[in-house]
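As the work plan foresaw, our protein records have gained a structure token line. A representative record is set out beneath this paragraph:
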Amino acid sequence: MQFRALCLGVMLASGAGRAADFVGPESCKACHAQAYDAWKQSKHARAKDSLSPQQQSDARCLSCHAPNLADQNVSNVSCETCHGGGQFYASSYVMKDPELLRLVGLVDPSEKGCRTCHDASSPSLQPFSFVEKLKLIDHWTAEKASRAEAAPADVAKRQARDPNR
């Protein structure tokens, strides 16, 4: 617990309370390959590409199709568009600690966040059902299952290295 408090203190003192820089979807891929593959196949990964050349220079369109283009130089809708900039949470030791992970910036996406773009003013004119659309971007179910399958093997490996555990 002291480590978390120390980390939080350092983060706040260093200005980390402000928006974190993006590390890019390739950084996420290293540990979250299945989630990355699901994202890569999604419309979010090609959001800006779906716009006409004229729309690609229209700030109103880019605000949803490439919301982090101006501040992070990231085209399309990437992992960090929804989960927050990974500068402070991308390291493996932080990723292993769910409480610290959220303290330093990981965002759990919500319907409210999705509705910043998927709302009544969207030019698509299609109703947005959060529950149904969430199923289309599911990039966590397969990953959680594979981690659950791997967990007993990881415990066995640790016990083999250190039988006194």
Notes: The first helix runs from residue 2 to 13. Confidence is low (pLDDT under 50) at residues 13-17. The two ends are 22 Å apart (CA to CA).
